[in-house]
Design a protein that fits this description.
Length: 287
């Protein structure tokens, strides 16, 4: 992890405008999932995974008469891409200067190219996301490219660390980005009832600016079916803090990581936060 961590250098509180544009852009990928991938009860057909070799957030595979395809976002360039079944790039679309309507047309043209019903494709988001100027016809802007490059480093680092910790649990979900809150994380159920339903779990992830923080942050939260999780008298964390609102859990803000000047120090701080927070979370849920 130390060898692959990307040094964070910019103030994370400056990333929000660029993050909001990327969040809007990935909605096209999520909607391809909604209309062309078999729908799942947990909405996982709309989620995305980080592909480190391509440096993209990629949607789920969809079927077509011409083979599988998927769409992706290269966030450091604010660019949508389409891949064929062999991960060859079919085409790409820089979002700068385009409206949602123009981007939707680009997506539909390429859906038609793969001989699927492009008329089904709509920007019909079924969950609430914050209103944005692009909803009213404004074009996407690619000002301050260094912000987009920094966001890509946050995504790559989070995927590296979260995959490493999730891999320690056979029951962990895959690490994915969810287009609703645009968080990147994994769900780890720990105990189950006689029907195989989870009764106690914890989740790890990286969130973007929201009601919990005005900047990106790592989190660890717990859940129990009986709702008896108690955060009274939890031990201090080596980095970060425990929150009781807007959710119960551990939080480490990105600015606390970025304030450390070395790759080794940044990665170590996050790992120590994860180790301590997960250990306490398992005590909280009694496993």
């Amino acid at each position: 992890m130390m060898n692959n961590w990307k040094l964070l250098t910019l103030n994370p509180k400056t990333l929000a405008p660029a993050t909001d544009l990327i969040h809007r852009g990935v909605q096209f990928i999520a909607m391809v999932g909604k209309f062309y991938v078999e729908n799942q009860p947990d909405d996982s057909h709309t989620n995305l995974e980080w592909l480190n070799d391509q440096e993209v957030l990629a949607g789920n595979w969809a079927d077509s008469p011409k083979g599988k395809f998927r769409f992706a976002m290269r966030s450091k360039e604010l660019t949508l891409l389409m891949y064929d079944k062999d991960m060859n790039e079919v085409d790409n679309c820089r979002l700068e200067g385009l409206t949602n309507a123009q981007i939707l047309d680009w997506v539909k043209i390429h859906l038609h190219q793969f001989e699927v019903d492009s008329d089904k494709m709509k920007l019909d988001i079924h969950y609430d996301i914050p209103h944005h100027a692009t909803d009213d016809g404004a074009t996407y802007s690619f000002q301050n490219p260094e912000l987009f490059a920094e966001i890509a480093k946050h995504r790559e680092n989070s995927d590296l660390i979260l995959r490493a910790f999730a891999a320690q649990y056979k029951t962990a979900s895959t690490v994915r980005t969810w287009p609703h809150h645009f968080d990147h994380g994994a769900y780890i159920p720990m105990t189950f009832d006689e029907n195989g339903n989870a009764t106690k779990s914890f989740s790890i992830g990286m969130g973007i600016h929201d009601e919990a923080s005005d900047e990106p942050y790592y989190y660890i939260t717990t859940w129990s079916a009986d709702g008896d999780n108690s955060y009274d008298n939890v031990p201090d964390l080596p980095h970060g803090e425990w929150l009781s609102s807007p959710f119960n859990g551990a939080v480490l803000r990105a600015s606390d990581i970025a304030a450390i000047p070395t790759v080794e120090g940044q990665a170590k701080a996050l790992c120590e936060f994860m180790l301590a927070g997960i250990a306490t979370s398992k005590v909280i849920i009694g496993v």
